[in-house]
Design brief:
With about 400 residues, this protein is α+β, with helices and mostly antiparallel strands. Helices cover about 35% and strands about 30% of the residues. Bound molecules: zinc ion. Zinc ion (ZN) binds next to helix 2.
Length: about 400
Amino acid sequence: MTTRRLYYDDSFLREFDARVLSCDPEVHNGTPSWAVVLDSTGLYPTSGGQPHDLGKLGDAYVLDVRDEEDEIVHIIDRELEPGSIHGCIDWTRRLDHMQQHTGQHLLSAMFQERFGRPTVSFHLGAEICTIDLRGPEPTEEILEGAEHAANLIIQEDRPVTVRYGTAEDLAGQGVRKEVKREGILRAIEIEGADLQPCGGTHLNRTSQIGIILMRRCSKMRQDWRVEFVCGLRAERVARRDFQALRGAAAKLACATEDVVASAERAITERDAHFKTVRALLQRLAEADAAIALQFLDSGPSGIRVVARTFGEESQPEYLSNLATQLAKSEKTVALFGRFASGDLVFAQHPAASQDMNALLKQVLSQFAGKGGGTRDFARAKLSDPAQVEKAVAFAEQRLRT
Ligand SMILES: [Zn+2]
C-alpha cells in the first residue's frame, strides 16, 4: 500500500496520527530494530540530497526513514502493535534541513539565472552543505554575486509554494530541468526566482531561510564544489569564524581587521630573523673553531682531534658549521655530540686520512641509532640521547688506537 506523505502538503506538520500497517524485526547498524510501515507519515525519508527526519512513533524512537518506491519505511528502536499511533518530528533538525534545502534552491537558481552555472548535485551534510556547479571556475565575483542576489530575495520575503502538474505542464511554466517521470509531478516555486521539480520539504517564505553564507569553492572532478550554510547554521559558523579571528588578533596583538597585515609582518620578520641567526651561527662557528685550534696539539699520528659534547643551547646547525670549519684545518678531525637530541657529527680534513662513515658505523654497532655519510663527513641520531657522551668517547678512542 502507498504511504501517504503528509509532508508533501504541509511541511510544517510537527505531529500526526497514523495507523501501523506492519512492523517487522530487522538489524540496523548492528542493533536489533523494527521496520514499520504506516498508512501515512509526516516523517521525511532520506532522498534528493536531504537527510531523513528523526522523531518518535508512540514511545519508539525513529532511527532512520527510507523511501522504498511507494512505501516509506521507518526504522525504530522497539516493536509497535498494529493499530493507531501518534507520531512527532524532531523539529529542530527538520527546520534546519528545510533552511538548508530551501536555501539551496534559491542559491542554485541565482547561479543559473545570473551566471549560467547549472547545479549538478546537492549534499546536505551535518556541518555544511555543498552544491556542485558545472562549467569554468566561478570567480570571486560570481560567488559573491550569487550569494548576495539570494540574500536579497530572502530579505524580500517571497512566498515558496508547491505546484502539481505533468512534466509538460511544468515545462510550459518554466521548469528548466528535463523530467522523464510520468504522471503528476510536484514542483517547488520561489516566486519570480525558481521553479523546480522536488519531493523535499521546504519553507513557506524565503525570509525563513534567514541568510545564506558562502564558504569555500574547490575543484571536484570536472565540477566546482561550493560550500554554504543557511539560517541558524550560518549564525553558528559566523560566530565560530569570528572567535577564531579574535583569537588570532589577540595572539598578534592587533585589531581583527589588521590580522592579515599583522600575520604577513610577523612572517616577514621571522624569515629575516632566521637568516640572521644562520649567518650568526656561521660566524660563531668560525670564531669558536679558531679558538679551539689555538690550543690543539697533534697526537702521535699527526692527527688533531676535537672531541666535544654540547648542550641544548647549541643548535644542530651550529655543530655542523663548527665541525665543517674545523675540518678545513690540516689533518683535523671533529667528533661532536649533542645531549638534547642525540645528534652526532663527525668531520675530518681529507689529509687526516680516516673514514668518518666507517667510524660512525662502528659507533652505531655499539649504540642504537641511525645515520651515515661520506669519508669526510657523517652524522647520526642516537635513539637514547643520554648515550651521546659515551658514543663520542668511544669514537675518540677508536681514532687514537
Ligand atoms: Zn527541494
